Amino acid sequence: MREITASGQTVEEAVQSALEQLNTTKDQVEIDIIDEGKKGVLGIFGSKRAVVKVTIAKNPIKETEKLIKEIAGNMNLSVEVKTTVESNQVTYELDGANIAILIGKRGQTLNALQYLLHLAINKDKKAYYTVVLDAEGYRGRRKETLESLAHKMADKAKRLNKKVALEPMPAFERKIIHSALQGINDVSTYSDGVEPHRHIVIKP
């Protein structure tokens, strides 16, 4: 049961009745007051009961998890999803056969799915979440690759004494490059271009 209409002497009483029938708490539902009711003369004559519609609110984290499985299913993939929530960051870790299809070339499919999930989880705008979508530890391996690339390109920029532009990357990957080179005194980094072609430039 996801939704119930209940009545009571007051709105509060009607809501309480609905919560008991749904076996839930007030913070887990959406309440729609259909009729506030009225007390009537001496609380008896012409009185009208309050009527409310109470709906169990959808959990955006669980709904987004379902969406991942639906997308994977449409790609003929069966995936296990492990969900971790830390503050406002939700990490979905995927596991399953042929998971490389979901990662795509240089993580492009994974990044596109992550962006889609970010939109889906925040569509109700009740709370703001950032989404990290990972598949079989790809993000960790990609981070190591990017850090190695950052140092290699920084050396190239110093050796040639000119700017070096990297390939376009999503914002969270550019952040890895910026962080990797932050402590190096003889190079600086900045982002250039317009999404989705925004890229990092390393400058000696």
From TrEMBL:
This is RNA-binding protein KhpB. The lineage of its organism: Bacteria, Bacillati, Bacillota, Bacilli, Bacillales. Residues 5-55 are annotated as: Jag_N domain. Has an N-terminal Jag-N domain and 2 RNA-binding domains (KH and R3H). GO terms for biological process: cell wall organization; peptidoglycan biosynthetic process; regulation of cell shape. NCBIfam families: Jag_EloR. The keyword Cytoplasm applies. InterPro entries: Jag_KH, Jag_N_dom_sf, KH_dom-like_a/b, KhpB, KhpB_N, R3H_dom, R3H_dom_sf, R3H_KhpB. Transmembrane segments: none annotated. It holds the Pfam family R3H. It is found in: Cytoplasm. Belongs to the KhpB RNA-binding protein family. It comes from Oceanobacillus profundus. Residues 140-204 form the R3H domain. Keywords: Cell shape, Cell wall biogenesis/degradation, Chaperone, Cytoplasm, RNA-binding. Forms a complex with KhpA. GO terms for molecular function: RNA binding. Coiled coil: none annotated. A probable RNA chaperone. Forms a complex with KhpA which binds to cellular RNA and controls its expression. Plays a role in peptidoglycan (PG) homeostasis and cell length regulation. PROSITE patterns: R3H. CDD domains: KH-II_Jag, R3H_jag. The keyword Cytoplasm applies. GO terms for cellular component: cytoplasm.
